[in-house]
Every structure is written in C-alpha cells, then in structure tokens.
UniProtKB/TrEMBL annotation:
ATP binds at K736. It is a single-pass type I membrane protein. Residues 1-33 form the signal peptide. Keywords: ATP-binding, Cell membrane, Glycoprotein, Kinase, Leucine-rich repeat, Membrane, Nucleotide-binding, Phosphoprotein, Receptor, Repeat, Serine/threonine-protein kinase, Signal, Transferase, Transmembrane, Transmembrane helix. PROSITE patterns: LRR (PS51450), PROTEIN_KINASE_ATP (PS00107), PROTEIN_KINASE_DOM (PS50011), PROTEIN_KINASE_ST (PS00108). Its EC number is 2.7.11.1. The keyword Repeat applies. It is found in: Cell membrane. It comes from Setaria viridis. GO terms for molecular function: ATP binding; protein serine/threonine kinase activity. The chain crosses the membrane at residues 648-669. This is non-specific serine/threonine protein kinase.
Length: 964
C-alpha cells in the first residue's frame, strides 16, 4: 500500500520555510553586526566593574561579566524602562548608545538599591560622567559623601538616603545644576548645609530629614524656586524658619518637625497656596497665630503640632478646606470653642486638638468621614452630643465632663470618669499602693522583682483610652503614623531571622525576657495612669527594649527612636534613645524614678518631639515605645506605713490610758529627736532641698557595714571613707561616709547629691540614696566588684587586662564624659577625672565616680574662671595656671588616664628615676618609640603605636590633630 503524500498546502509551506529562516538569520546577523559595532565606553565599563568589585561583588548581575558588554539587552531598551520602580531590575543600569554614530554606549543610570552594600562610595563612580540617575539608597554605605560627585554634572536624580554616611555635605554638590531630586535622608552627617546647594535651581525634590545636619538654613536656598517637596525634619536646624520659604511658591509638601527652630512662624508661609501637605512641629520660643493658613485651601494634611500657637479656632474659616483629611493642632495654646464648621468637613477623617485650652461643649454634629477625634487635655465640659458612638475613636481624657448614665457617655469606653481633670476616682479614698503592666501583652506574668505584670492588649487607635475594670490603671494613646495608616499600636519582637514573630526571644540585661516580647508604640503621645493610689512616694520603674531595629551592618539597623519621658508633668528624660542607652537592640533598659503622689493619681507620659527616623524597617516605626512598667511604694514610705500600722495595733491592745502615756512619751522623744535631726540637716536641706532619692536610716547603714568595720573598707573618697555594705534585702552597696571634721567635705557632699541625682548613664556610678542623720551624712552607691581602675592597673591585686579590654574601659569613660558634657540636660565638668575615680563592675565596664568637685557650666561660654580643684598630674595647663574651666579640664585628665591604662603605670611613680617619675614627661621623651605594657597581649604593634601617637598629639596640642 502506498503511503499518502503531503497536501498541496503543506508543499507550499515547505517551500516558504527556507525563505523565513534566511530572513531570521539575516536579522540576527545584522543585530550581531550592530552589536559588534556598538560597545560600552571602556573607561565606563572598567569603572562599573570597579564599583561592583568594591561594594557589590556578591551582587554581580548576570548581564555583567568580563565577556559580556554591560550595555546590552534591557540596558539599551529604547522604551526607557523605569528601573527605579521595577523591583526585578536591581542592580541595573541604563545606557544611551546613540553616541559616535551609534557605536558607543554611555551609562546613564545606575541602580544599586537595598542590596545591603557595605563600604565607602567607590571613587570609580567619578568616571561615569554621563550618569543622569544614581540610586544607592537603602544600603550600609559608610564614610563621607565624596566631593567628586559634583563632577557628574549630568546628574538629575541622586539618592544616597538611608545609609551610614558621615561627615559634612560637600559644597561641590552645588555644581549639579541639572539636579531635579536630591536625597540624603537618614545618614550620620554633621555640620550645616553649604550655601553652594542654592545653585541647584532646577531642584524639585530635596530630602534631608534625619540626616544629622544643623545650623540655620542658608539664605541661598531662596533661589530654589522650583522646589515642590522639601523634607527637613529630625535635624538640628536653628534660627527662625526663613521668610524666603514663602517665596518657594511651587511647594506642595513641606516638613519641618523635630528641629530647633525658633518662633514665631513666618507669615510669608501664607504664600504657599499649592501646599497639599504641611508638617511643622516642635518650635522653640516665640508665639504664632493661625492666620498664615487661611489661603492654603488645597491642603490634605495639616500638622502644626507643638508649635507654640496662641490663637482662637474661630479666626480660621475652616469651611474653605474642602480637601482636608487630617488636622493636628495638638500641644499648643489654642483657646475658644470648637467650631461647628470644622467638624462638619466631610473630607476630614482625623482631628487632633488635644493639649490646648479649648472650652465650652462639643459641637452638635460631625462630618460623614470623621472617625478619629482627640480632644484630650482641654477644658471642655457639658453634655455628650448625639453623634458620640462606639464606632468612633474619641479621646476626651482630662477635661471637665460629668460622666453619668443620663447622657451619652454610656456609648464611650468605661472609666472616663476616672480620667477627668478635677474628679479622679478614689480622690481621698485610695484603694491600692502598687500596680504593674506588661505593655502590649495579652497575659499576665510574674516578674523577678516580685510584681505581677497585668496584660495590656487593648486595641487602641489614633485617639483612644482604656481603663481597667477595677479600676487601678489606665492608658491613653493619641496620634497617627505618617504614611502607615494601618500600623498597629502594639508591635512584637522578631526571631533571629527577623521574618517570623517569636515568643521566645531572649533579651540581654534582664532575667525577664517575657516582658519584652511585645511593646506598645505610639506616633505622638502615650500616657499611663495610676488610679486610686495611696498618697506618698513611689518608685516608678519603666522598662524598654528596642525591637524594631536590627543589630547588623544593613540598612535595617539605621533606625533611630527618640522621645521624651514626663512623670507627673515633669520631664525626666529628653531625647531618650532606647537602643543608645542599651547599646543595642533586644537589650533591656530600666529607668527608675522616685515620684510623689499627692492626689491619689499618677501620670506617666511618653512624648514624641519629632525626633527619630520615620521608616525603618518600614513606614511608621517611630515615636514612644515601652515594654513594661511598675509602680511600687518607695522603701522609706513602706517603712513609715509599717510603723504606723504596728503602732495602731499595739494601741488597741493596751488600752486608752496606756496608749495615751506611750503616745505622749513617744511624741516628746520623737519631737526632741526630730528637732535635733532637723537642726543637723537644715544646712543640707536648705541647699539641696529634700533629695529625690531613697532615704536610708543611719542605723541600717551602720548594720549593713558591720559598724563600718575595717574589713569592709574599700578606700578613701574625695571627702571621706567608702565601705562595703549588705542591706537587709541582701543587696550589696557601697556606703560613702562623710568625715565628721570635714567642712569642705560637707560642701562636696552637697555637690555630689545635686549633680549625680540629675544625671543617669550606664558609665556613671549609680546613686541609690542617702542618709542625712547625725554628723556623718552618707551616700549609698551601687557596689562595683572590681574596684577602681588604678588598683586594677597597678595595685597589689592588679588584673590581667588585655588590649581590647583596656580599649573598652577607655571607651566607657569617654561615653560617660560625653554624656556629662554634651548629652545630659545639665552640663557638668567633673574636675577630678583620675584612675582612682573610675570603677569597674563585674564585666569590667567602666563607670565614673566621685562628683564632689563637679561643677555645672554653660556651654555658651568658652570658659569660666574658678578656683582650681582636682588632683596634681591630671590638671590641664590652662586650668592649673589661670583657673579657666571648661569641659577640656576633663578631657585633659581623661588623656592622662588613657596613658595610664595603656602604659600600665601610674601618673607619678617616685620609685623610678627622675626622668621617668612623671608619666607625661616620660611619654613625651618616648613618643617616637614603640612602647606598651607586656601584659597588654599580642595586639598589633602598629595599632598600639598609632593609638599612642594620637594620644601624644592630643596631650601636646590639647586636641587630636588631623595629621595623626
């Protein structure tokens, strides 16, 4: 049988196939020929290779190798693919191949975004001279912003944001006159903005928030009239917001929160009629009105929080703001009634008017979109309107409302009556003396301190409060996270992979890791209340741990959380940074305060003052965060209560007559004793005031130290002896006993209380309390196991300290001094820094002690003339000769301590020859030689020499020379 042949159509198709293949081959050959004729500029190809070699070798893309020209494929796509917004193209380049008759390609765009690149910005970039777009955002690039970037004059978009870059902004960037967008946000820069940046007249977007910059905004910025977006929050810009900002009439988004700007706000802001978003906050001094916003009718978001605004809301015609979605005027001095026109805005969803002086009653109606209203901390009163509903988040804490079942208050969360201004619950009839809260947790737990921490998982929104059923405590939250509108107000720690939530992560510095698995977070203001407490002194313990930011060399470690802590209206911490205090994430920090309660009510307030990053690891991670808190009676208060209760019981048992005799006798004896005690303490109280510290009795400290037995003697302090003591609860302390004959000692005692009770830092010895009885006032400090640094270095029981340990000891002293000189709310010069005044704990962490000679100083003055005090051999020359006191007094002495630590010998050793007896003279003779103590370990000789030479430069010129 014959097999059937192909049909006619198949025969025609077969005939056409060779022709089609030939065409394809010709096209391919043509493309290959064109590609052979077109290649990337070799200088740029080498530069690109150098960039990847230095910071991106592990990220080498498939299209880039020694055998493949980089400007191929998608890199030359004529459709101008948007590599910035395509996550699949990263890293990526774009090329322009239309040079020299389409034979040469130049690289015009380079994207290396969020690749965890580490290291300085490669110098090879300077050879990519045709770049119009450079995106190195969201990595861990270090070192300075290189000035050669100013040579890339074709640049239109430059993003270096979210890195670890340091140093100043180079003035050479002002040469980038074609730049449309510049981003240097979230870096570790310093200094002021160079005026040369005003030459970038085409600039439309400038992102400099959280960059570390300071000083006034340069006048040359008045030329940036093309600006549409200016983000400059979380820096230290000073002076007034310049009037010329009002001439930047194209601005649509302006952010000036968390700086040091002075008021009043410029009236020229009224010219910015194209603004859709305006955020200004945290203005220092001055007073402003709301008049400048009247013409900003295109606004969608208006935040003028903490701006020292004194005005009446009636001065603004809010009916014009038809697009307004969020209004925040909280923490000002706004008076008058709440306008009906404001609440009737149908576009308005979020309204924050808390912490003002508003009065009267609430309006009778609200707009259809308004779901979140904060009126807390005002003077509002009257009945609750009919629009009050469980579907709203409405915060009316700290007003003058009368809460009863006869009005609409039943529709609000319970407990509001306990949080009104003048009528807190249980006023005069307390019901508790302690409480503890595990913030964010859904279950209770027992802490190692004996407290039972209650759960706190109420779903608080942007304007919410919650009061426990008892009620013994409550919480209030206010604020909305920027660009993260659905952000939870409770966050949970991640496990080591940072991707899975964990309930078993271990935290450093605490035996109670369970307390820190969750935390409550707020974008603006978070308050906890103690309700119905007995009046008296309490220990308020706040516990924190940073659980949002990684400890790694990636961009996820670059977040910074900063907030203030107020208790009973008094600021206790300014610019508190959990991670900085704990020296890392996932490490516990405990802050304790002695707080008086006088109206059976306690308020703990965590307040965001505009500082910190906004968007690491994602949008909306900023503002106050707390893991746990506890409130317990102060020990002296507990003892007094115990005595009172015991006296009452005995009195009831022995009868009225005997009680009368005992009471009369006791009162007489106590009065005489108190009178004597009062006279003995009067000078101290008049000078210091009653210390905000634990008050110990002389008897218990005498018992703790075994009658100040010589076996417990630790050494001589600046004005008396120091003994080891063991209190009745088992805790070990150091007790400093003022010499009975020391008049100077009493002055130093007062100075020490005044100073160290106001400063708290991990590298300062902690003061627990004092005793002012008798002729021998006492201070009680934490006990540090390894004693003083001088004994550890060259005492009889010297420790074997290797080089890294010695370095960490010096670093700890430096941190303590930096806190005293620059970071504390008061500026302190210690004046007696020396090895014997540096103590070491069990882990050899260094802590500065003995503040008897300390002085406060004004950092605006270059020096203060004062009577010379301190220890011979540690005195700065200008201080010893002329009495000129500044922080350099401590810095000089610190340099001597560093030399002692490195050399392992004291400042003066009379056993050595005359040319070696004095450490400084000896070192100056040997400064060109390599020297180090043999027990310093096997550290690099070159490293030691470099350190020593730097120190010698500092000693000779009183500061580290740039040439060292």
């Amino acid at each position: 049988m014959r097999r059937p042949g192909p049909s006619s159509s198949c025969r025609h198709g077969s005939a056409a196939l060779p022709t089609l293949l030939l065409l394809l081959l010709l096209l391919a050959a043509s493309a290959q020929a064109q590609q052979a004729r077109t290649r990337t500029d070799p200088v740029e190809a080498d530069a690109l290779k150098g960039v990847f070699d230095k910071i991106g070798r592990e990220m080498w893309p498939s299209w880039f190798s020694s055998s493949v020209d980089p400007c191929t494929g998608a890199a030359t796509d004529d459709t101008d693919t948007d590599i910035d917004h395509n996550p699949n193209l990263n890293p990526a380049i774009k090329c322009n191949c239309k040079y020299q008759n389409n034979t040469v390609c130049h690289i015009t765009k380079l994207k290396m975004y969020a690749l965890d690149l580490v290291g300085p910005i490669p110098e090879e970039l300077r050879n990519l001279t045709h770049l119009t777009n450079l995106n190195l955002m969201q990595n861990y690039l270090t070192g300075p912003i290189p000035s050669f970037l100013g040579e890339l004059t074709a640049l239109q978009y430059l993003s270096l944001a979210i890195n670890a870059l340091s140093g100043s902004v180079p003035k050479e960037l002002g040469k980038l006159v074609n730049l449309v967008s510049l981003g240097i946000s979230i870096n570790n820069l310093n200094g002021s903005l160079p005026p040369e940046l005003g030459n970038m007249v085409k600039l439309e977007q400038l992102y400099i928030d959280s960059s570390g910059l300071s000083g006034p905004l340069p006048p040359s910025f008045s030329k940036l009239t093309s600006l549409k977006i200016l983000w400059a929050s979380d820096n230290d810009f000073t002076g007034q917001i310049p009037d010329y900002i009002g001439s930047l009439s194209n601005l649509s988004d302006l952010r000036f929160q968390g700086n040091s700007f002075q008021g009043p706000l410029p009236t020229t802001l009224s010219n910015l009629v194209q603004l859709t978003s305006l955020r200004i906050g945290d203005i220092v001094n001055g007073s402003s009105s709301l008049a400048f916003i009247s013409n900003m009718t295109s606004l969608n978001t208006l935040v003028l929080r903490n701006c020292r605004i004194s005005d009446n809301l009636a001065s603004v015609n809010f009916s014009q703001f038809a697009k307004l979605s969020l209004l925040d005027l909280s923490f000002n001095n706004i008076t008058g009634l709440v306008p009906q026109a404001l609440l009737n805005l149908n576009s308005l969803s979020f309204l924050f008017l808390g912490n003002n002086s508003l009065s009267g009653s609430l309006p009778s109606s609200i707009g259809t979109s308004l779901k979140n209203l904060d009126f807390s901390y005002n003077q509002l009163s009257g009945n609750f309107p009919s629009w009050v509903s469980p579907n709203l988040t409405l915060n009316l804490v700290a007003n003058n409302f009368v809460v009863s079942n006869s009005n609409n208050s039943v529709l609000l969360p319970s407990g509001l009556e306990c949080l009104q201004r003048d009528t807190p619950c249980f006023l005069g009839s307390p019901q508790t003396k302690s409480f503890a809260v595990d913030c964010g947790s859904s279950s209770s737990m027992s802490g190692s301190d004996g407290s039972v921490y209650l759960p706190d998982d109420a779903n608080l929104g942007p304007a919410s409060y919650y009061v426990t059923g008892a009620p013994t405590w409550g919480v209030s939250n206010v604020g909305r996270f920027m660009e993260a509108f659905e952000r939870d107000y409770i966050i949970q720690s991640l496990n080591a992979s940072y991707t899975v939530y964990s309930s078993t992560r271990l935290f450093r510095n605490t035996p109670d890791s369970e307390l820190f698995q969750k935390a409550r977070m707020s974008p603006s203001s978070l308050r906890y209340f103690g309700i119905g407490l007995e009046n008296g002194n309490y220990v308020v313990t706040l516990q924190f741990a940073e659980i949002s930011f990684e400890d790694s060399r990636t961009w996820k470690s670059l977040g910074k959380r900063v907030f203030d802590i107020y208790i009973q209206g008094e600021r206790k911490e300014q610019n508190f940074d959990i991670r900085k205090e704990a020296r890392g994430s996932y490490a516990a920090v405990q802050k304790q305060y002695i707080i008086p309660v006088t109206r059976n009510f306690l308020e703990i307030h965590l307040f965001w003052a505009g500082k910190g990053t906004c968007c690491i690891p994602s949008q909306g991670h900023y503002g106050p965060l707390i893991s746990a808190l506890s409130v317990t009676p102060a020990p002296n208060a507990a003892r007094k209560r115990s005595k009172n209760k015991t006296g009452a019981t005995v009195g009831a048992a022995v009868g009225a007559v005997v009680v009368g005799l005992i009471v009369l006798t006791g009162l007489y004896v106590r009065r005489q004793k108190s009178r004597k005690l009062s006279l003995e303490q009067q000078d101290l109280y008049n000078t210091v005031g009653r210390p905000n510290l634990f008050t110990y009795s002389y008897g218990e400290l005498k018992t703790a130290s075994e009658n100040f037995n010589s076996s417990n003697f630790l050494g001589e302090g600046g004005y008396g002896s120091v003994y080891k003591g063991k209190l009745s609860d088992g805790s070990v302390v150091a007790v400093k006993l003022l010499s009975e004959t020391s008049r100077q000692g009493k002055k130093q005692f007062i100075t020490e209380i005044e100073t160290i009770s106001q400063v708290q830092h991990r590298n300062l010895v902690k003061l627990y309390g004092c005793c002012l009885e008798g002729n021998n006032p006492l201070l009680v400090y934490e006990y540090l196991d390894n004693g003083s640094l001088d004994k550890a270095l060259f005492g009889n029981g010297r420790l074997n300290l290797d080089w890294p340990t010695r370095f960490e000891i010096c670093l700890g002293i430096a941190r303590g001094l930096a806190y005293l000189h620059e970071e504390s709310s008061i500026r302190v010069v210690h004046r007696d820094i020396k090895a014997s005044n540096v103590l070491l704990d069990a882990n050899l962490n260094s802590k500065i002690s003995d503040f008897g000679l300390a002085k406060l100083y004004d950092d605006k003055n270059t020096h203060i003339s004062t009577k010379v005090a301190g220890t011979f051999g540690y005195l700065a020359p200008e201080y010893a000769m002329r009495g000129h006191m500044s922080e350099k007094v401590d810095v000089f002495a610190f340099g001597v301590v560093i030399l002692e630590t490195i050399a392992g010998r004291p400042n003066y050793d009379g056993r050595l020859g005359e040319d070696k007896a004095y450490l400084l003279e000896w070192v100056l003779l040997l400064w060109t030689l390599l020297w180090a103590e043999p027990t310093g370990g096997a550290a690099s000789r070159r490293q030691q020499l470099r350190q020593v030479r730097r120190l010698i430069c500092w000693i000779r010129w009183q500061e580290v020379s740039n040439s060292c």
